[in-house]
Amino acid sequence: MARTKINYRALVKSDRVHSRLYTDPQIFDEELERIFHRGWVFVGHRGEVPNPGDFRLKRIGLCPVIMVRDGAGKVNLLLNRCRHRGATVCNDERGNTRAFRCAYHGWTYKLDGSLAGVPYPEAYDEGFRREEFGLTHVPRVAEYRGFVFGSLSPAGITLEQHLGRAREQIDLFVGLSDADEVMVDCGAHKYDYRANWKLQVENAMDGYHAVTLHESFLGVLAERARAQHAADDYKGQFEGSRFAVTRDLGGGHVMLDYWNRLYDALNDDPIPEVEPTTARGRIHFDELTRRFGHLRAAHNLMQGMTHTLIFPNLILIGVQMRVVHPVRVDHSEVAVYPVRLDWLSDAVNATRLRGHEAFFGPAGFGGPDDVEVFERVQTGLAADRLAPWLMLSRGMSRERRDADGTLIGERTDEVTQRGIWRQWMKVMTHEDRPRRATRQSVRLPIGAHPFHQSH
Amino acid sequence: MAVDREKVEQFIYHEARLTDENRYDEWLALWTDDALYWVPCGRDDIDPKREISLIYDDRTRLETRITRLKSGVAHAQEPKSRMRRIVSNIEIEEGANGEITAFANFMLAELRRGVQDIFAGRTIYRLRLVDGAFKLAYKKVLLVNNDEYIDNLTFLI
Question: Interface pTM (ipTM) of the complex?
Fold first, then answer.
């Protein structure tokens, strides 16, 4: 199919972006290739597969992937595709197994992906080597605190380089827990919407919308707060930077940096005492207390400690990790996983879940209004003839460098949106610039498609 | 004491009609103070202390849900869903203290902004006689698609 070369510089300006970026199927295909297949994307957390044989179905872009823990405790990312005739070999979203057996002709694979056997092997000649026909491994897999990232490109920057300053926010999200102290076994809220994937990504880091779009939630909350505590005008919290700032951590990782969280007042249950239940938990809690003070450390462990986008597809908000899956240019799926920490009491972990349910999920008091507006945006974008731009200019003139070098703005400023689009442009126009030699030596698995061409 | 099957059925049908017609206040008035309105997520049998639900409303949160739906700015229900549901296969058990447990299947057509969705599932009700009339103490809805991507469940299910 003939395709025209897209001039991205004409579509993404420093203060505005063009409708086509959300509606053009060719741009969507190029995003999948350049952002989701070449770069690092979040796949899953080690805590989802705690035992040998545990597996989850995952995706990298549109590519079906099995995340499975093998007998040696290693978490493997395997392409879910039989090496014989291409059928998926894993068909349950989650479970525990000793092997993956293709239903079609019976090729059977071990948990590390190697081919254990095929029926009637004598029909293959001696040139057929079983070790060449294991399930294809995702070429690059790396973890940070149990967060498993993958890249379908055999070469590129390291995960450490990719995450940069965002690592600190992952540390806070898990309350400094080690990988095996994070329990990702609380189920998932899953919702889809008929609009572009970037609308969810941008919205999650938008400090401007809550005061209007979530008025029904904040109004109820303000009423509750007035009844329970001292009256506080919630709208005042959205002005200036007294309660939060927008922050660009670099690399497309951006955050709303709150000093407090809003939605706890909705929870009428008595607030349980936060006391670590394990020795390691005590160490984490003491460290958090040292950094933030006891009250805020305890409060944050019940509500979550960060509000960050890990570019391009992982959102950490409160107690949830949220994964955005592009499906088509105008269809997206989102899975939201609240997590427990094994060193918090059952009561504190339950409080985390109830607080999450109040706002999020398809029946929550906030999330569905976001989804509603994504679809209204997608519908509105069809009116692209006369004024096709979406504006990102809010607070541009008052952006400033914080002491740590990150770019910050006031709570409602679009520092975050601009940070996302800067990275988006960098990745999408990568081939337009001279390539520096950052290739790592990674052995290409046999049969893997060389997405990343060397120059 | 034999259960008055017809009275139980009438209550269930009435409750279904109030949800179909978004009659929020009348629906809220059906509930007891120790209400639990529960829609599990992922599987039918989850432990709410350790796992999330789509809805896990005690009386207070139920009131919050209704306040929000009536606010005029709950955008996921502006416009509101148009709905009709069939409730059938009703089975009734009498429990301790005269509390009645009823089981039913349902199928719901829900239309909003040009898209009609079908929801189906099984509902478990616990009814209690208060001053001679039934009140709803517990409603657990086991959605067939509770492990699938759902775009909007902000109406009363």
Answer: 0.96
